[in-house]
User: Fold these one by one.
Assistant:
Number 1:
Amino acid sequence: MLSVIKIGGNIIDSPSVLSQFLQIFSRIEGAKILVHGGGKLATHLAQKLEIPVQMHDGRRITDAETLKIITMVYAGLINKNIVAELQSLGLQAFGLCGADLNLILATKRPLKNGIDYGFVGDVQTVNGKALFDFLSQNISPVIAPISHDGNGNLLNTNADTIASVIATSLAKLMPTNLIYCFEKKGVLSDPQDDNSVILEIDEAKYALLKQNGVVSAGMLPKLDNAFEALRQGLEQVVICQADALENFGKPNFVGTSIRLSNG
Amino acid sequence: MLSVIKIGGNIIDSPSVLSQFLQIFSRIEGAKILVHGGGKLATHLAQKLEIPVQMHDGRRITDAETLKIITMVYAGLINKNIVAELQSLGLQAFGLCGADLNLILATKRPLKNGIDYGFVGDVQTVNGKALFDFLSQNISPVIAPISHDGNGNLLNTNADTIASVIATSLAKLMPTNLIYCFEKKGVLSDPQDDNSVILEIDEAKYALLKQNGVVSAGMLPKLDNAFEALRQGLEQVVICQADALENFGKPNFVGTSIRLSNG
């Protein structure tokens, strides 16, 4: 079984939380891939360098200078420090971005309503075979959320999307779980109650949850994407907190497991 | 035949010169590895971030903040842009630093005469086997001059040294040439005359050149290191300009070929 695990800013932004997570990650049995986002480091660096953050409708516009920051922070600073730390834990890890081994080929996002989002990539193809070869040798890839366009340009790409396309690509070659490490313990039935985790969601239950308005609006696109990935052959998509991973697969695991059918 | 090619600031600092070099590199026949230095980009970024450059006896001291800069610029910005450009030229490239795949394990340099050079690594072991596996699949590694200590720390390491230890490690597995791309056309017999390239140097000739004071003081450590690498099994060490690489192996090639004996 392959676990593709995605972590974001809530883990990366704290060295001690990251260290704790990497220890858990290194102990996960079976093949594993880590996809990391960027967190606040890139924003801090952009501020120090006085590169203005341009937003449109809540989305960051990646101009040439911002792309440089992202490449330095994601593929350099964060990626290589994670790899060095995993090596110290005895895990044979190595870091890549989407340009390496032609891992993630993308196209620059076309103008949308006249807005140029800059160097942002929409994924076209994934070289799952290259990752499979590493996994077969007990090597754990650590992936920075950057793709390339095949014409020499790097492109900023959403880390959740990168995790999803990598997992669905590998799912064609081996049974694969996709695990999103989240701030909350999972999908909550009551947003005010952190312990109201819905442990299992299948398509029928999801239809009900939507109908009853139980799932929050922010969670809907995440769940829609999860079901889309499941239809492409994933075993399950899991949403949980990073420290819950320690118990993944055990009866005391707390988190939301999403499958097409929990029958 | 494997070519391990090292490029430095004179190539990296100019996007057009770098592009021209990468085109030549992509056309080199046989297995190839590119080792790149950092150039002025790291210095510029440190200046912008107002991180003081600390020097001692002409050597930079790598404090924690400087190490971050180096990791971002070398392993991120430079490394990934080179890989993306090589991919656009049809070369299956991928970038790594010494932490990836435990490629270059080093120890933090001990205090020297009471001076702490900071996060600087002296190479202990090289995972040549990992690189050999890539080369066997027609994949070209692109290596940033950063090592790690096995305890989770990245270490700044001289790019000439990285190129040399990688070449000597691979030389145990396949015939290997080490090529330094240099500002000058090669080792000059007259430092004032750029065309006075000494085409071949073997141990006997080197002894004579030193005796006659022909080789400049700055060149001596480079040549000493070259002969040390040759004694560890390299075919030849070559010092030439980047654009001369186009003719490497042909009669019109201009550059200095260093062998133990040119018999």
Number 2:
Amino acid sequence: MYGLIGKMRAQPGKRDELVGLLREATGALPGCLSYIVARDPADTTAIWITEVWTDADSHKASLTLPDVQAAIARARPIIAGFEVQIETEPVGGFGLPEA
Amino acid sequence: MYGLIGKMRAQPGKRDELVGLLREATGALPGCLSYIVARDPADTTAIWITEVWTDADSHKASLTLPDVQAAIARARPIIAGFEVQIETEPVGGFGLPEA
């Protein structure tokens, strides 16, 4: 499996709107096992996104899907930046579909 | 919801053993919605754990369960330390049970 842990920053006052866009964009995408969007309670513009994919190629391919491209285009103006982007190798746990 | 993103470090050569203990400890615990254990591909002793709970109290209560206490006791000798512990407020996404 392939995982990502990312911290994204919204433009001031735009976090809820950005969270909404991120949630819309993540219906069942091919190869996506988990995609969780969270607010940072200590930082009013920060969003944490934790993702699990079957493999890195599935994640990469998702970025080219028309719905995802459209969501990225709508989100871009209210994204202030990316501060953390960590790749991981998920090995299991609770809350993932059976491999 | 209540989330945690943590980076734990295993004693050298003990990461796989620690990952195994972490996975064992996380059958369906009350209030646990997601608990994913991942290796850090860039750091041979590091483990990332991402958790989602219904609320902070459920997480806190889980630490007192006998099975969890037993797993903690077995893991402690091979844990070298904790480097990151971020609290989050998950708001949704894909891969969580319906609220």
